[in-house]
């Protein structure tokens, strides 16, 4: 079984790349996860599923189960709600942070579109400077480039 710091193991690397590496595998105390090659405390989706199954199928108490799996009761209930809503896919951790260019909406996006000239390069640095002057808003040039590419029909 790989240790938390062993990111050279192929499965551990894959879990890390997919965002499903359990950040605290040492907190999982269910014996199944210590004495088995199948159950892996590093696999957060498997840990969450087994936690839910333990309460649902084995009728274990939520308090005892959350203690064995190293999570809080609110985390258990959030996990259960996600699973009830989306099935196994609901157990996969969501990406954190904004989901797109949240600063580039409405008036600012319209302003950028007005500044674009068909057939010419985007000039993102210049656009960032214009936005800073007009709207007192700092936007990274790469954010502008990504937003323009998304809005431009292929």
Task: Kindly describe this structure.
It is a single chain. The chain is an all-alpha fold and about 150 residues long. The chain has 2 domains: about 10-90, no CATH class; about 105-150, no CATH class. Helix content is about 55%, strand content about 0%. It has 8 helices and no strands. It has helices at about 10-20, 30-35, 45-55, 60-70, 75-85, 105-115, 125-135, 140-150. Helix 7 crosses helix 8. It is elongated.
Summarize the structure.
This protein is mostly helical and 154 residues long. It is built from eight helices and no strands. 18% of the residues are buried.
Report how far apart the termini are: 48 Å
What is the N-to-C succession of helices and strands? HHHHHHHH
Total count of domains: 2
> Which bin fits the share of residues in helices?
40-55%
Number of strands: 0
> Which structural class best describes the helix and strand composition?
mainly alpha
Main sheet characteristics = none
> Please, what is the average pLDDT?
86
The dominant shape is: elongated
H/I helix tally = 8
Low-confidence stretches: 1-5
Determine the strand fraction and express it as a percent band.
under 5%
Radius of gyration: 23 Å
